[in-house]
């Protein structure tokens, strides 16, 4: 094992390091997928045009909810 490999292992989630190890990558992906996220919001809006309440759920960091709010003016709860 070289020094770089050891440094990489230190970033993985473990009993000692409980912070999600993929947070940085997730944020980078979310930042560069804006068109994709907007397309998802547009598809959902086809079915829920007359609603003023939205419940957010997921496994990300809430950026799809941000796109929803920008498109509709409704902040998901």
List keywords for this structure.
single chain, mainly alpha, 77 residues, 4 helices
Question: In summary, what is this structure?
Answer:
The protein is mostly helical and 77 residues long.
Describe the structure.
This protein has 77 residues and is mainly α. The chain has a domain at 34-77. Helix content is 49%, strand content 0%. It has four helices and no strands. It has helices at 3-9, 23-31, 34-45, 63-72. Helix 3 (34-45) packs across helix 4. The N and C termini lie far apart (46 Å). This is Methyltransferase type 11 domain-containing protein. It comes from marine metagenome.
* Helical run tally: 4
Kindly report the oligomeric state of this protein.
single chain
Radius of gyration over alpha carbons? 17 Å
What order do the helices and strands follow? HHHH
Describe the sheet with the most strands.
none
Helical residues, percent: 40-55%
How does the SSE layout of this entry go?
Blueprint lengths: L2 H7 L13 H9 L2 H12 L17 H10 L5
Helix pairs in contact: 3-4
